[in-house]
Amino acid sequence: MRRMKKDATYLGLPLFRSLNRSKDLHLLTERVLQRVKSWKSRLLSKAGRACLIQAVGSSMATYYIKGGNFLDIESRGSDSGMWKAVLQAQSILQKGLCRAIDASHGVSWVSQFILPNNRWNVDMVRDWFSHSDAHAILNVDLPEEDKEDFWIWLGENNGNFSIRSTCKLLKGGIPENDGIEIWKLIWHSPLHSRLKFLWWHLLRDALPTKGKLATILEGISDSCILCNEATESSLHLFWFCPFAKALWFQLGWSIRTELVNVQSWMQWTEWFKMDSNRPSSMSFSDFMAHTLCIVEGIWNERNRRLVGEKEMDILRVKDMIRLKTIDHIMVSSKAVPEILSWAPPPSSWLCCNSDVAISSSGSVLAAVFRDEWSNIIAIKTSMTNVNDPLLAEALAVCMAATEATSMGLNNIIFQSDNLNVVNEFQDQASPVFNIKIQCNFMAHNIAKWATCYKVSGRTSSDALPAALLDDLIEWNPGL
């Protein structure tokens, strides 16, 4: 048997770790550098570089424990120091992991409360639990298909693991302070990534102004290149410089910067967050898009003069900022299209309206499919123990999508009268559109009818009363 070398690798990764960590990871560093070495030729912005790093990182091969469970693996004396350090994360994961019950076969005491048809045994649940607990349990929707249970991460609302929530868990869940809130305001805003990076650079005072460069490099003048009247700090360049003052007054709703007492970019942001300092009809995100476009316009003109290009007239700078602002606001605003009256879908498309009827024992989901000539293609109803309106509306949309898949239907426009549900589905491949409840009575009427007569499954439109099949009039079972 031959002895392995200390620099032996397996699947491209070093098997042994030495005291020189830089040497151990040199191979990975070189691999990443090879992937991103074309940055200089591409001249990417900071937002573009962030996207490129994400793309390169996701394309690199990763290896996992196939056929094993990371939580069950124990550290051995022969393991490398790197692997032992990885295994130390087990205790951290166990604090935030939770088992999500799906088919429930892996949890014996849960399976006892589920019928063979994968429905809750309502009578048994109500006998064994208090009224409030039984209500919460019955609102947990069980899948129609038999799927395995899975793990979720309690640190995030979507159940996906994240480094941010893990760091918060390690710190003991300390309350977030105002400093963290401002970063959340930036990165969670609907602004374009380039404007987010610019905003972040402002608050961190990280832009390479001449005032900062002159302190570390010799032979550089620190005077503002736009006015030559003061040291070029970021606050002077974008706020107190005469060139900036003119733009803020002409483009920023007649803002007189000399009358706004701000000494830092944090104070500057807080001033803009005040409702009284912006038009009442404009949201904060649109206001910041306009504001940051002004800052970007000043920075671009400053760089243009710095490299010796011809000075641009301030009126032309103003026009360019105005056009760019319009583009950014149009991109960042993702308004949900609202349908004021039901209309047939375009040619070769189908329209699916969904709604629910809530009762004390649960809810009934209903979906109706129609073609471009308003002909009813299919009607589907389903009973569930869920009596939470928001959850039931979401389940109705999911039921409609499942039914469309089982029938082999394509090109479908889904419509719901619950705006919260519509917003949650906007990032999906087939978004859901909002329709006024006054125009969605056909699906609502079918749900009410199915509740009264306890009907579940596919139903023919010929079997329904004509009064149900109306989009603008609610069905009254007493008539």
TrEMBL record:
Q: Which InterPro entries match?
A: RNase_H-like_EbsB-rel, RNaseH_domain, RVT-Znf
What residue stretches are annotated with the RNase H type-1 domain?
Answer: 359-432
One GO molecular-function annotation for this sequence? nucleic acid binding
Give the Reverse transcriptase zinc-binding domain ranges.
Answer: 161-248
Which protein, by its recorded name, is this? Answer: Reverse transcriptase zinc-binding domain-containing protein
